[in-house]
Structure formats: C-alpha cells, structure tokens
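Re: beginner question about structure tokens

> Can someone show what the tokenized structure looks like for a real chain? I only ever see the sequence side.

Sure, here's an example I had lying around. Input first:
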Amino acid sequence: MAAHRVVLLFVVGVVRRGGPGTFHPAVSVRAYVSGLRDTCRTIPAMTHRVAVLALDGVLPLDLGIPARVFNEARAADGSRLYSVGTCSIGGRPVRTREDFRLVVEHDESLLETADTVVIATQEPTPQLLATGTLPEDVTAALKAIRPDTRIVSLCTSAFLLAAAGLLDGLRATTHWTLCEAFAELFPGIEIDPNVLFVDNGRILTSAGGAAGIDLCLHLVRRDHGTSVAAAAARRCVAAPWREGGQAQFIEHVVPQDADRSTSATRQWALERLAEPLTLEGMARHAHMSVRTFTRRFRQETGLSPLKWLAQRRLAHARHLLESTTLPVARIARACGFSDPVALRRQFHTYVGLSPAAYRRTHGVPGVTAGR
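And the corresponding structure tokens:
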C-alpha cells in the first residue's frame, strides 16, 4: 500500500492547478500523460547488442552474415536497431579457413555485455570430434555469457554449443553432412538434418552456409516484426522467408558396388522406376527369398528395399524437376508414383517443399514449366 500512496501523492502534486484546494484531475492527468508520452518519444531506444565470436578456422562468408543482416534492421526513423561487434579470444587476429587472417576490434569480454551472442561458423576441430570437448579458453569465454543472453550458432558451430553443454536435452541442427557425427558425439541432443534452423527460445542453431541469413532474419522478425525483417531482407537482396528446409539439398548417393549380391537388382530397379515394382518382384530378380533379400539388402545399403526404392524415385523426380520442364504429372508417372498427389505428399514429407516450389528454387532458370 505504501507504493500506492507515493504514486497518488505524486499525481496530485502534478495535476494541482490554481489556488489551494483547486484541482482539475481529469484534464490535468490527460495533459500530463500526453506530455510524458512526448518526452518518451524523444528518448532513443537502446540498441540490441550483438557480439559475434570468431575462432580460428572461421568461415569468412559466414562471419559477415550477422553484421550484414542486423545492421540492415532499421526503426521507422532509419536508426539501427542492433549494434554488432566482433571479438576473438584474447582479441588476437583470427586465422580463417581461407588463405588470410582477420583482425577484430574486441576480445571475449564483449560476450559478457551482449544481448545476443553469435558463434560464427567454425568446422569442428579434430579434438572436438574425438573427445567432444573444447579448449579451456573457449569454455571460459562461453561460461562468461550471462544467463539471459540469447545464444546463436551458425552451421557447424553447433558442435561448440553442444560441447559446452548448452544444447543438452534440446533440439538442434547443423550442416547436413555432419549430422550423423553430431548425433554420435552428443546422443542426448535431438539433431534435425532437415530444417534451416531451430529456435529453442534462448538457444538457436542454424544449418549450413546461407541458413545463417535465414536465422538472423528470423531473429529480426521475432524481435521487431515482419515488416522490419522484410525491409532488412530487401536491403540484403535476400528472401525474407525461404520455403522448405535443408532436406532439399541433401544428396543420396546410389551405391555402385557391383560385386555385392543385390547390386544387379538395384541397377535393374533403377532402370524400371516407372513400373510398379514390388518387394517380391525384386527378390525374385535376385533369386532369393524375400526374407534373405531384405536382410542382405539392408546390410549392403542400410535401408529396406522399399525405403531405398522410395528414395530413388524421389531423387529421380528431383533430377527431372531441376533439369527439365516436364509437367509434374508426367514426372510423377516417370518416377513410379501413382499420381501427382502421391509425389507431392512425398516431397512435403522428405523435402519440405511442393514439387512446384522445389522447381522454382532449383529448376532451369528462365523457363516456365508445367505444373
């Protein structure tokens, strides 16, 4: 109640007009509040402080992404909504993965005052891949980050957050080529190889390369809304939101081991993807029982025959969408799908896009294709 009394006395003191005992609270409070709003408008908003940590082996392109995106996020008056600084351990020059070094302006103490910390892309070191541990100076720098600071990893720097214990029990992503290694090294973390980024609230991870742009734009959108993020994307000449996920870029290599027992049947099936192939028919071609064929097939490819067949049909459909202008219905038939709906269903499940959206992203430029 004491706090309420203080506020009431303050308001009375402000709104009193005329002589003793004369008050006009309705008019005066309104005028006071209006004046207070005008005063608040003249006080510039605090910019959100972003610290980017660069370690030896950093990828130069990825290192520049946070500053490029966040510096283009502007308020209505054109002022920047973020301030971005780059630091290294000890403030030392950083050896990049290319043939040059970078000089940064700050040491790791910048992380202690940041509102958001971004770990720029660094491929995991042999020590990290072998032991799941970090150098002591990197561990100390990450421990100095405030508990309320937002932490972001770009690409394979998710390994650093995992090794520091920041991803325990969470879902995460990293570059699809290293998702299996990540899962083996950190089994307590759910790794998703299909998405462009994962937002856990305070901790966020992104997939490879340009997915860092997607994640930074997502943060701008989360902090300041769609219009600010869209304007920042336009200034960067980037898509404000990309459809689909990382799955659309994953390569599925066809085994070429002709000496294996099911190899001839695999090649036979690849030449007949448009036909209604069955497990029994594939086993019969291999001169095996269904049980033996399935067991050997899984030993040689890591997949069941029907799962392998579905992957190959999907891969062939992707190839045709990328390299031809055939209508989607015709591509569905050529790849052994019962109809275009079945093809679209597979694309949404495993690629995260419709066939038409995939073609717009990866198809022959400048050519209008059939749907």
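Each token stands for a local structural state, so reading them left to right follows the chain. The first strand starts at residue 48 and ends at 53.
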